Amino acid sequence: MIRHSITLHRGCFGGCSFCTISAHQGKFVSSRSEKSILNEIDKVTKMLDFKGYISDLGGPSANMYQMSGIDIEICKKCLRPSCIFPSICKNLNTNPEALTSIYKKANNHPKVKKAFVGSGVRYDLFINRLNESAYLKYVEELIQHHVSGRLKVAPEHTSDEVLKTMRKPSFDQFKEFKKIFERINNKYGLNQQLIPYFISSHPGCIDINMAELAIETKQLDFKLEQVQDFTPTPMTLATVMYYSGINPYTMKKIPVAKSKDEKLSQRKFFFWYKQEFKKDIVTELKKADRSDLIDRLFGKNVSEKPANIGKRNKKSRT
Hints:
The chain contains 13 helices and 13 strands. The chain is of the alpha/beta class. The strands form 6 sheets. It has a 3-stranded parallel β-sheet with strand order 9-10-11. A two-stranded parallel sheet has the order 1-5. The longest helix has 17 residues, at about 170-185.
């Protein structure tokens, strides 16, 4: 645990194909009582090195507190690996009012200056319900009062095809949340950043998908920092696909980047804005006959240059 942080709950029903949290902590979320949480906050405020800031009010996913099946008997029979992918289960209670209450009470503690949310937020739990008061109040409370300057979210990729293998929602939901985040920042005169996390070399992902990711994130004015290369982890669907090269749900072969060169080739697209990677990216896309992607990423003048871009012609001395 991070110092001066408070764990509100354990478990996760997200079911991401690359994640083991549901295997380690369970698919059913176990939430602490409000009294227990507030008692721990009180204890933290009495620590000698406490300066008034709670570093995190969170869990595996920040905003699953007290979320569970409406009819638990239906849950016991359910075989879905995820309660929210490809769509949110109708039997899932996603009301955030209890969490909003804890956020407010934490901030109102006389010895707490700010109680931040440092864990990743699942925006797909509320993005389509902001016309309902409880969900809108939660999002406004979160963004206005509980961001330490940067809010972490994990779209993981931009390609719908890759996102399906990850069991993650469409990137369109992230773009919608980004608009809401910016609107609330503007409303309250805040200058906060939205930090998206992405994965390269996930089973099903190829260089073209990464090029499209680079273009999408560039258009959204991001220069990515929080990224990782896929690592196979025991007990996950993604690892099955990594070693077998097959999606067990469709029984079709999928591409898998395994070698050091294949992984590096994908990872470079995260850093399209760094000069040292530009030449390699252009070369890869030219090999794939995708000058259109070069045009969108770097401009048409780059795609029209010869393949030996960047090399100087040496003139002979007389």
